[in-house]
Structure formats: structure tokens, C-alpha cells
Design brief:
- By secondary structure, this protein is α+β, with helices and mostly antiparallel strands.
- It has one domain: NADH Oxidase (3-Layer(aba) Sandwich), CATH 3.40.109.10.
- 50% of the residues lie in helices and 18% in strands.
- A 4-stranded antiparallel β-sheet has the order 1-2-4-3, with helices on both faces.
- α2 packs across α5 and α3 runs antiparallel to α6.
- The radius of gyration is 15 Å and the shape is globular.
Length: 151
């Protein structure tokens, strides 16, 4: 697929079928996210993969009741690792570069998903503390990307 076609095809989907996204496709999406550019190539972020129904339900509630978070086959939660970038770049790394690293990786994940025929949606409205508690990751969550097959 041509890059411009990929960009044009990507859209936010909030209605998913019950069909599960295959593990191999999730790995391809994660690999694409990991190849995203980052400041100093530090990759100052973490990605949590959420497939469990109970955790997706909790994430949906933490995301202000957005049902598509629960209905998606998989949720990818992107976390900003402020200290990883801060050790090299100081305050600018902590406050900006790590945030950029995480969000660029999330955007790459969306494009990879679209290329694989996987519908997706960027979720930014959520309770950060709740998302950290649900995932067990104490870094700052900055985005949830829902993945599934469009209904």
C-alpha cells in the first residue's frame, strides 16, 4: 500500500466485532511501534498489552466509560518514561522528549494496525492513576490505542 493511501485509510473506529486480533498481528504492530524514532534512540516509553476482559472493563471505566475500550480485542497502553529520557536530557527530556517518544510510537502502532487491516482508535481521555493501577505500570500513561476488527 502506498503511504498516502495508508494515511487516508486510517480512521478512528469505535465499534468492534467479536473477532480476536491474532497474536502475530499484535506483535507486528508492537514491532512497528518499537521502530519509531525517539530522542537519542532511548525509547523512553513502555507499552502494556491488555487482552483480559476484566482489565479491559476496568480500562473502559477509567477512560470515562468509553465502551470501545472494553469492546476492542486488544488495548495498547503507552507510558511515558520520564526518567529514562531525563537522565540524558534533563528537564527537557523528562517533560517533552519522553512524551514525544511515547506518542510517536503510538502513532506508528496505529499506522501498522491500519496496514494490517486492524481498526483502531486513539484514546486520550482517561484517569491516569486508574490506568496505572489497572496495568500495574507506575509510569505516566499518555495514550490507549484500541485494536480490533471493525463491526
Amino acid at each position: 500500500m502506498e503511504f498516502r493511501d495508508l494515511i487516508d485509510r486510517r480512521q478512528s473506529v469505535r465499534n468492534y466485532s467479536d473477532e480476536e486480533v491474532e497474536g502475530g498481528k499484535v506483535e507486528e504492530i508492537l514491532e512497528a511501534a518499537r521502530t519509531a524514532p525517539s530522542a537519542g534512540n532511548l525509547k523512553a516509553y513502555d507499552i502494556e498489552v491488555v487482552r483480559e476482559e476484566d482489565k479491559k472493563e476496568e480500562l473502559s471505566l477509567a477512560a470515562r466509560g468509553q465502551d470501545h475500550v472494553r469492546e476492542a480485542s486488544v488495548d495498547l497502553v503507552f507510558f511515558q518514561d520520564r526518567e529514562r529520557s531525563g537522565r540524558k536530557y534533563g528537564d527537557r527530556g523528562r517533560d517533552l522528549y519522553s512524551l514525544q517518544d511515547a506518542t510517536i510510537a503510538a502513532a506508528y502502532a496505529q499506522l501498522a494496525a491500519t496496514d494490517l487491516g486492524i481498526a483502531n482508535c486513539w484514546v486520550g481521555a482517561f484517569d491516569e492513576e486508574g490506568v496505572s493501577e489497572i496495568t500495574g505500570n507506575q509510569l505516566r500513561p499518555v495514550a490507549v490505542i484500541t485494536l480490533g476488527y471493525s463491526d
